[in-house]
């Protein structure tokens, strides 16, 4: 669970997550949900009124296992979903683009650091 500040109140966020890994690759899919929405679902509420926006990433080798000699790299694929009430088909505010860039950059850097941490130690 993660707490996100929303002045002046705090919003508690839960993450539904699924992950899998084997020699062909790995993936993590997650969907942030606030506690109020989760509570409604668990108490028999209508799912129609709760938005679940899954995001995630996959990491796959750039070669099939056992194929050729030499270094094997990785292919990283990211997928994010979000809701921005200020955007429409013709217009996306600069602030939204900056937020998207920050999310993608931070996520890629965190994944890269985690992968390199496993190699270094």
Automatic annotation (TrEMBL):
> A Pfam family in this protein?
PDF2_C
What organism is the protein native to?
Gossypium mustelinum
InterPro entries given for it? HD-Zip_IV (IPR042160), HD-Zip_IV_C (IPR057993)
What name has this protein been given in UniProt? HD-Zip IV C-terminal domain-containing protein
Q: Which domain of life is it from?
A: Eukaryota
HD-Zip IV C-terminal domain segment(s): 6-115
């Amino acid at each position: 669970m993660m707490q996100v500040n929303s002045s002046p109140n705090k919003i508690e966020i839960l993450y539904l997550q699924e992950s899998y890994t084997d020699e062909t690759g790995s993936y993590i899919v997650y969907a942030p949900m606030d506690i109020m929405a989760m509570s409604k679902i668990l108490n028999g509420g209508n799912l129609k009124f709760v938005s679940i926006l899954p995001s995630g990433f996959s990491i796959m080798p750039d070669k099939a296992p056992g194929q050729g000699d030499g270094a094997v790299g990785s292919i990283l694929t990211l997928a994010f979903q979000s809701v921005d009430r200020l955007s429409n088909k013709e217009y996306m505010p600069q602030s939204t683009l900056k937020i998207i860039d920050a999310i993608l950059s931070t996520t890629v850097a965190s994944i890269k650091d985690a992968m390199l941490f496993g190699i270094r130690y």
